[in-house]
Design a protein that fits this description.
7-stranded parallel beta sheet; binds guanosine-5'-triphosphate; binds magnesium ion
Length: 337
């Protein structure tokens, strides 16, 4: 069946690049509303044109300042820029949201730039999916550069950056031990490394340390991640960053690695969605939350264990599905048993 007129007009308006429609579509995927799935199905044929740039790094490294300057550079080239920032609800970066708003205020007034924050709070695991969907919506709306900013802590956020066409990791001078600490998490996902705040002491030693680390971790694709030095606050090095981004994209086109990466991203998106859907379906009933509370209590007081608890939930939802779902589900579970 075709979509309702209301829905198809939302798609049409998104594709026409209407800001309000874009905002509404993103809210739908963020809330996980009923018609979000149909919306994303309709959006999909219009995607795949923009370049997705993921920017990650420690709290306060200057990611938003860089995004701001990079966006201005793209605007000078008459490109439309979509920015999705993951609202850092982590205690590490208090006050950042307000700072972002102020820093990006000038951009926000430009109709060629769309800025959206995604909340990490209260998003039951769906953050990565919602963010990637938001990027797809912006892509469909004709934004040719899609920038995702995220603090490089937490699995979800690393996944989000991995789903970008180009991943930029932002460091600052004098991190020393920090480099070691974050190495495990985000070093291997960086296609480009930025040493921002290059106006500060210790740029040289940070660069040397980074070079040493990078030389150890030879990449399978043969790409040598460049190190770009920037001073975001003074708009210095932003051109170099843009050049690095373009060269990585060209490298991918030339070597056909883009196909591999796209396949890996597609696989990840399917699994992410499957996980979301299965979880939502399993916890869909009114009694699910009570059951969860009861099982949590049982595990906490050691009357049960987490494995048995999960088995009980799965059994429960299977029986429910068999009861409601008619012949097909029943047949299926019969063959399984
Ligand atoms: N000295 C100096 N300060 C900078 C530079 N870039 C950014 N800053 C400052 O560093 C602070 C943090 O910058 P943001 O751009 O908010 O950093 P962020 O990485 O987005 O921070 P979170 O989103 O909170 O993780 C601000 O006070 C900026 O003005 C730089 O190149 N040199
Ligand atoms: Mg920021």
């Amino acid at each position: 069946m075709s979509a309702t007129p209301e829905k198809s007009s939302l798609i049409e308006r998104v594709v026409a690049g209407e800001t309000r429609a874009v905002a509404r579509a993103i809210s739908k995927v963020e809330d996980g509303s009923e018609d979000a799935a149909q919306l994303m199905k309709d959006i999909f044929p219009h995607t795949g044109r923009g370049l997705v740039v993921g920017i990650t790094g420690a709290p306060g490294a200057g990611k938003s300042s860089l995004v701001d300057k990079l966006a201005s550079l793209y605007r000078d080239r008459k490109e439309r820029v979509g920015i999705v920032a993951i609202d850092p609800s982590s205690p590490f970066s208090g006050g950042a949201i307000l700072g972002d708003r102020i820093r990006m205020q000038a951009l926000g007034l430009d109709p060629g730039v769309f800025i959206r924050s995604m909340a990490t709070r209260g998003n039951l695991g769906g953050l990565a999916r919602a963010t990637v969907d938001a990027v797809s919506i912006l892509d469909a709306a004709g934004y040719s550069k899609l920038v995702v900013e995220t603090v490089g802590v937490g699995q979800d956020e690393v996944e989000i950056v991995k789903a970008a066409d180009v991943s930029v990791v932002v460091l600052v001078p004098g991190m020393g031990d920090d480099i070691q600490a974050i190495k495990a998490g985000i070093m291997e996902i960086g296609d480009i490394f930025v040493i921002n705040k290059a106006d500060r002491e210790g740029v040289y030693s940070t660069e040397k340390e980074l070079e040493a680390l990078l030389s150890l971790s030879g990449r399978e694709d043969g790409w040598q991640p460049p190190i770009v030095k920037t001073i975001a606050t003074e708009s210095k090095g932003i051109d170099d960053l843009a050049v690095a981004i373009e060269s990585y994209r060209d490298f991918h086109f030339r070597t056909n690695l883009g196909t591999q990466r796209r396949r890996a991203i597609a696989r990840w998106r399917i699994l992410e969605l499957l996980r979301d859907r299965l979880l939502a379906r399993t916890l869909a009933s009114d009694s699910a939350s009570d059951t969860l509370d009861r099982l949590a209590e049982e595990v906490a007081t050691r009357r049960s264990d987490p494995y048995s608890a999960v088995e009980e939930i799965i059994e429960g939802s299977r029986h429910k599905a068999a009861g409601e779902g008619g012949a097909q589900t029943t047949d299926h579970s019969t063959t399984l048993d």
